[in-house]
Amino acid sequence: MTLKELLSNDDHFAANSGCVLEDIGEGFARTTLHVTADHLNAGGVCQGGVYFTLADLAIAAVMNSHGQLTFGVENNIVYVKSAKAGDTLTAVATEVVNHHKLPYVDVRITNQSGDLLCIVTGIGYRKQVSLPVDE
Q: What's this model's pTM, rounded to 2 decimal places?
């Protein structure tokens, strides 16, 4: 099983929310989501947890891309612009620091027009446990 298969199959919340892990490499990941009416808040725009879930899946892919079990311990999220039903969100996560214990990742979420919607940063805790995945 690959890391992409593990995260795609076993992260049930992200999958049930509509998040798709499109691409993953060492220190890089891209996730997407098509915004539907089910993703909207009472104000008629994309609910903040949707952005976070999309970014969280990308962060997990990046932090675990080195083959060691890594869990998120802190995230920061900044909402720049709202998405609406019909938009397609893309989260691109890149590794900023590949620390042996505390990796740091930056995520930029854009819509189909390339407009920046959200910025998420994450810090993880890397355990001394290998992931049971193939490269």
A: 0.95
